[in-house]
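User: For my dataset I need records formatted as: sequence, then structure tokens, nothing else. Please produce one.
Assistant:
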Amino acid sequence: MRSLSPIQTAGLREEGMILPRLENIGTNLPPDYLHKHFVADLYIYYVFEQESNYRYLRHNDLENGIAFEEMHITSINNLLAFIGDRIELNGDSDDAMMITVDGEHESSLLLFDKFWNELEIRLDASLLVFTPSHDLLFLAKENSVSGRERLTDIRNQFLSENIKGILGSMFLKRNSGIWTLAE
């Protein structure tokens, strides 16, 4: 098996950068799209990002000798390099906060364990997260009553507006580095 540098296309048949993209299983994407389970109804799919568009990868896009897990790691490394230092945390740490990157990859930040470990240390708290779409990521300290209430208000607003393409309506939290559904 050959090794890959982080920005390579991971042995795929066309040029472009491969990135991970979270999707809700209810999106009804074709079963031959490359994917793996993340948490609850969220799955990681893989896309080619090329200038202003992207295309979902299918199983036949992988060449012989490239392991799925190797492609997954490459996509995470690509996203980290692509995002760089553009991550911004906005809001009040005692209430709800919003993370911004570029208006398209915010939900994929859930895949960066190191980022969440550092953020939990910085905020001295376990975190609740709500990501209703690819471009929105809200969070609050798990023990913050006002933060939890604000996240609930934000979620209810999304649900009441019946927005198409909602990524998720659940709150997530991390336990020992693993994302789970929050109660």
